[in-house]
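The records we work with from here on pair a chain with its fold. These numbers are not coordinates but entries in a learned vocabulary of local backbone shapes. To see the layout at work, look at the sequence and tokens printed below.
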Amino acid sequence: MAKERLLIVEDEPQVQRLLQIYFTNAGYEVVRAFTGQSALEACVGRPPKLAILDINLPDMDGYDVCRALRENPRSRHIPIIFLTQRDERSSKIAGLELGAVDYIIKPFDMKELHLRVENALRCANRENLANPVTGLPGPRLLEEEYHQRFEGRHRWAALYTTINHFKKFNDYYGFVAADDLIEFLGIALASVVNEAGNREDFIGHLSTDNFVIVTTPDKVKSICERAIARFEREIRLFYPFKDRQVGGMDMEEVVQIRDAPLAFLSIGAVTIGGRRSQISTVRDLNEALGNARSKAQALGKSGYVTESA
């Protein structure tokens, strides 16, 4: 099972090192950031499950970091715990009003901080806000993004992405290898959107091997092409050499699994909006995305299909 990923944003090296050692020993994957800007970049690239955020940072105020994370669709779901020397009531209220889940004052008790982190993660997991493998927003936040887009006046697009032959990959190589493949795709899609998309674009992890990107129509072609190129370039690295050589899984030892070529990526893209749009509900959108994705899968290789509705 993947370790839960914590981001520690602290400009005091000794405090940051102390937190890193403690939470690493407690079984977490710890990512460190010394500045607000590096924290924002870490949250967009591969979202952590929770961020411990100091308010006094060298380049920007911790409140501004929190505000920026809440304004970005790809990071607004991340629970934030403020860690600071400011003990004024107004400072606590300001942090909580920005959406922080907790507020810890230095000097702090490490065990208490650990319990508060566990409580925040437990609440986030119960609400199914993020996928446990990729850290990306889950189905609930994806649906909220859909509703916000439907309420707007601008045209937008959704890209439904699926790994073909993933179940056979999971059955043959095991869940650890399958999680590695899913994590790779989540990171790859985030990287592609950072390069070719908009700052306001959304990436959701719908289910095991299904992802959705919400963007603008003018970005669809570039995102699809880059995502497919990245996947095709690296998918072979997830297979043993002997399977790469034959272009699929060696079935001699596992007779239950048949016809299992290398995995490929299918993307169904649908543009929504405009006076003649036939899509006005999430149900309509899901049906249209499913149809577009099926057409892409019918290609029999990595590819994408775009439709307007």
Remarks:
- The chain has two domains: 5-126, 139-308.
